[in-house]
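Researcher: For the annotation table, I need structure tokens for Fe2OG dioxygenase domain-containing protein. Please keep the output clean. Sequence:
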Amino acid sequence: MKKSEALIKRLLNILMKRLNVKEIDETKEALLMGSKRINLNYYPVCPNHDLTVAIGRHSDVSTLTILLQDQTGGLFVRTEDRRGWIHVPPIPGALVINIGDALQIMSNGRYKSIEHRVTANGSKTRVSVPIFVNPRPSDVIGPFLEVLASDGEKAKYKNVLYSDYVKHFFRKAHDGKMTIEYAKIT
């Protein structure tokens, strides 16, 4: 976790420039990466892998997700037209970086969280290690003022307490990107 901090800060600095955020001060840093969680996911061999989904389609509620996956594969991302899936083949030593819902909300939709799923494997076990970079549960997330002020852009998302957003995600079955609707201004 400690070693990931420099990478996360570098990625966020690059992403924030496009949002007219000149610098990430202590307040923004806490909002973007105030909480981190690591999972160790083990997927055993599944004899009926054609009938099983290891993890259903969803987008992460995080700001960013940094994923290390083994060589088995099984991660798929939704195509832009939402009609199909693209396999994300594992590359030795590479990390997969996903934008999460929190960053989609804070960027007012300029960055999009990625819908993804994991399929079961009929002949090999699969291991993945995601680091979820999140706001703190007590943080209120909404579009950054810098994003809205740059072009007089209107907010597409309301301010929401991050813990409420996460509770909404876990309250229901995985359903693609429907969780983001909770924060949309209608």
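Researcher: And a one-line annotation?
Model: The mean pLDDT is 93.
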